[in-house]
Specification:
Blueprint: E1 3-9, E2 18-25, H1 30-36, H2 46-58, E3 60-68, H3 70-76, H4 78-92, E4 99-103, E5 114-118, H5 121-124, H6 126-147, H7 155-158, H8 164-173, H9 184-191
Parallel strand pairs: 1-4, 4-5
Antiparallel strand pairs: 1-2, 2-3
Helix pairs in contact: 2-6, 3-4
Pfam families: RNase_HII
InterPro entries: RNase_HII, RNase_HII/HIII, RNase_HII/HIII_dom, RNaseH-like_sf, RNaseH_sf
Catalytic activity: Endonucleolytic cleavage to 5'-phosphomonoester
Length: 193
């Protein structure tokens, strides 16, 4: 019986995709991962998250990423996009899990696998915490790469979230093709163009 932990990152960002990860851990290595410091990705430094990724991967039966583009987020809304990214990540796992532990309180629609939601699961379930780290590192790496093409938004440090420098860049330069135009901050600044 394989259980996957599932989490998403980038839900509140103004820039870039929403990314989810699904991780099936080897049960005999869960305690070891806790001892290594695996916890909610938001509680870890970028360096610590990077350090933990290979450890998580070596302690996993499988880990996979799913992501939904900005264009699709604007079409279906961020909640539906987050759930779609989670469904993608789970669908890529091999073997397919028999159960998914999903961070938060939203069930993933159209998933033919038993699922259980765990509010603040990234703080209490090792597999969900591992998924949060994998997703965060993957998304941050992508945003840092994109920051070189769009230097006016301070993306390397804010990772696409609405920091003062990011908002100032939006006001001065307007949104890029990777900004979520359905988000209020981007809509208001688009009207100024």
């Amino acid at each position: 019986m394989a259980t996957a932990g599932v989490d998403e990152v980038g839900r509140g960002a103004l820039f870039g995709p929403v990314v989810a990860a699904a991780v099936i851990l080897r049960p005999d290595l869960e305690l070891w991962l806790q001892e290594q410091g695996v916890t909610d990705s938001k509680a870890l430094t970028p360096k610590k998250r990077q350090h933990l990724v290979p450890r998580i991967q070596s302690a996993s039966v499988d880990s996979q990423i799913g992501w939904v583009s900005v264009h699709r987020i604007d079409q279906i809304n961020i909640l539906q996009a987050s759930l779609q990214a989670m469904r993608q990540a789970i669908g890529r796992l091999s073997p397919q899990p028999t159960q998914c532990l999903v961070d938060g309180n939203q069930m993933i629609p159209e998933l033919r696998i038993e699922q259980k939601t765990v509010v603040k699961g990234d703080q209490s379930v090792v597999a969900i915490a591992a998924a949060s780290i994998i997703a965060k590192v993957w998304r941050d790496t992508l945003i840092i790469r994109l920051s070189h093409r769009y230097p006016g938004y301070d993306l390397a440090s804010n990772k696409g979230y609405g920091s003062p420098k990011h908002l100032a860049g939006l006001q001065k330069l307007g949104p890029t093709r990777y900004h979520r135009r359905s988000f209020k901050s981007c809509q208001q600044l688009s009207l100024l163009e």
